[in-house]
Amino acid sequence: MDVENPTAPADTAPASGCPRQYPFHRPSAIELPPVYQDLRAEEPVAQVVLPSGDLGYIVSRHADAKLVLADPRFSRAAMLAEGAPQLTVAPMPPNSLFSTDPPEHTRLRKLVTGEFTARRMRALEPRIQELTDALLDDMEKQGGPVDLNQALAFPLPVQVICELLGVPFEDREKFRAWSNAIVSLTSHTPEEMVQQRMEMAGYIHQLIIRRKDDQGDDLLSALTVAHEEEGKLDEVELIVMAMTLLVAGHETTVSMIGACVLTLLRHPEQLARLKEDPDSMGDMVEELLRINPIGDGGPLRIAVEDVEIAGTVIPKGSAVMAAVCSANRDPEVFDRAEEFRPERDHNPHLAFGHGVHHCLGAALARSELRITIGSLFRRFPTLRLATDVGSLRMKTGMLVHGLEKLPVTW
């Protein structure tokens, strides 16, 4: 906050040069923090105060974000070192895909990569379509208006990842509470975050115990075999892996479905194009991914040596984040970057990250978005907002953005 102007937004750089507060202020549910335009133009490597109170750096240009995401000089495992700066007051657990570097990350990822290939997702698409159709049937019976988050955006990806993992769908409200705490920046106390993680770990542990005597063809059974019979991961790694897949496998897609539907409702000319040409859904999804960030930045990384970016030296031991939401609006890379243009020929967005940590579930997310959005507008061609855009609100204090509600009718 500007000590000379206490009413100034916290992300406005004060004259004293003090770091901005992260996360930055979003003026509305349909706007990104305006500060990113200033940062790209004037301060592409900016120092910020993280929710933990630690200092860190955020990079806002596309090329610099790619560097941070892929360069081994920016480590995730180094977050676990004693005294390392943290994103939140509850540090990320060890032994996860999000907190390891190669070769440990390679070993863990290899255990599950086969379940998330594009070919495997294509085989899963009839089931995704079946689940989507059932949810749309329920919507139609209920009649509008409905909260699309509750009717479709939340239950669909949760049910898909539950079936893949072999986790009871009826426990979905527990997953919602646990996930909200795990992706919290400032919306939960440290005690709440730790408690919810422990509760989820205990729940997964009980499922694993049952799997030892009752194997299925789900991913949790396969991981249990990899632990029990093949020794490819220890019990803590198994529990953390299952937690990671359960949270990451639905949380981002839940938020993205609502954001994408809202974008199309706000761009009737593009929605009309989709209705006329359903085959355009592929390009539409890529542009929806670019224009609708799931968060301001990716997971934190630590510089393991001094690294110069855009003329600024980031010292060894510093926390660094790649602001993917800003990188995906970089006018040096994307023509008319602030506009929603599904027809663009060049779309190297970073919505799924870059490098060895590129999102494991990218193919699954693309399938879910393509099927759910296309099916929704086929079933309800007159779908429209049941409220004004100005009344919509984003969840605050979360690593993953998402609309609190999305009221629609038809």
Report on the structure:
With 410 residues, the chain is α+β, with helices and mostly antiparallel strands. It has one domain (20-409): Cytochrome p450, CATH 1.10.630.10. 44% of the residues lie in helices and 8% in strands. It contains 15 helices and eleven strands. Strands 1-2-3-9-6-4 form a six-stranded mixed sheet. Strands 5-11-10 form a three-stranded antiparallel sheet. It has a two-stranded antiparallel ribbon with strand order 7-8. A hairpin with a 2-residue loop joins β7 (307-309) and β8 (312-314). The longest helix has 25 residues, at 118-142. The model is unreliable at 1-10 (pLDDT under 50).
Secondary-structure blueprint:
Blueprint lengths: L19 E2 L13 H8 L2 E5 L5 E5 L2 H9 L3 E2 L28 H7 L7 H25 L3 E2 H6 L1 H11 L6 H11 L7 H24 L5 H10 L6 H14 L2 H15 L2 H9 L4 H11 L9 E3 L3 E3 L2 E3 L4 E4 L1 H4 L34 H18 L4 E2 L21 E3 L1
Helix pairs in contact: 4-6, 4-15, 7-8, 8-10, 11-15, 13-15
